[in-house]
Amino acid sequence: MAGMRTARRILAGGALAAAAGWALRGIPAELGVRPLTSGPDRVSRMRRSPQFRGDTFVNPMSEPTALMTTPPVGLLAELARNKEQRHPAGPIPLRLPPSGPPPADGLRAVWYGHASTLVEIEGRRVLFDPVWSNRVSPSQLVGPKRHHPLPVDIGDLPQVDAIAISHDHYDHLDMATVRSLTRTQKAPFLVPLGIGAHLERWGVPLYRIIELDWDEEAEVAGLRFVATAARHFSGRAFTRNDTLWGSWVVAGPSKRVFYAGDSGYFQGYRGIGAAHGPFDLTLMPIGAYSPAWPDIHMNPEEAVNAHLDLGGKLLLPVHWATFTLALHPWVEPVDRLWREAKARDVEIVVPRPGEGVDVTAVPSVDGWWETLG
What we know:
Layout: H1 2-24, H2 27-30, H3 40-48, E1 52-53, E2 56-57, H4 75-80, E3 107-113, E4 116-121, E5 124-128, E6 162-164, H5 175-184, E7 189-192, H6 195-201, E8 209-212, E9 217-220, E10 223-228, E11 247-251, E12 256-259, H7 268-276, E13 279-285, H8 300-310, E14 312-318, H9 332-343, E15 347-348, E16 356-358
Parallel strand pairs: 5-6, 6-7, 7-8, 12-13, 13-14, 14-15
Antiparallel strand pairs: 1-2, 3-4, 3-16, 4-5, 9-10, 10-11, 11-12
């Protein structure tokens, strides 16, 4: 009898170990590649970058950048307090994305949640920071979990002309999504320096990877893409800043869009606006801010400041609602944004995930999120 119990324990332990091994098998690939080990051509380009010093990329802004390295006093108590406020109080309403071809001479955007956004600009489609996984983490067993379903399956996305990535954090660069898009799409990936090493490991052909430093540009499908500055950092494992981060300017014959990626506020937005603006649409991050990292994520008021610096006409908020990545209440970013926009006469649109927004017929802000806060 004792022998049977021992055998069952051994079998159960073996099954658990096998399950854990199966669940963790993909983590090494999720961590990506150290770009400095990925080949002489990429390494040479990285080392020539004005943003690269020693063996890492740096923020060259004159303002100092502080990044939390040790948890602030009281963090654990704060984590345990008001946890329910960091999640929506009910289901987030979704909309079915518009179908049909993109407007030939117009500008339309579809926000899928968090930062993932499709921009249809003068007959072309650009997909920003697509993340279709359920968790933003190297493992789908742990980490921040999605608060709402995707409004469209990744295989049902329309064919896009370009896929633009801002940096390599898990909530902006997702291995499973990249692999799916490599199979289902033909578009090139435009990425900051170093990120091409991750994409190559995940099976993206080299001819579909365009790596740019800040202020470098490329033309894809008749659109001009300019990699521009951001005040942030990078890293998928225990090392930081071995790939570059950035924002994107996308310019068609007459329409212009700015996507900020992740960034703290900095004076350089005025220069980007002067060089490449004004912008018909800005996609600005408004969530996941904290006093513990004031320089790497904007708060809503700073997002409005940056939008005005850029010469933006319509502001569409991103980087909120989908994942809990900071301690502020779920509803706070958009409440603060709406209040600041009204105070400063800034036009904003707050779509539900999947909702199409035509910049020539912007719907009024209806406060759909208020019952969920």
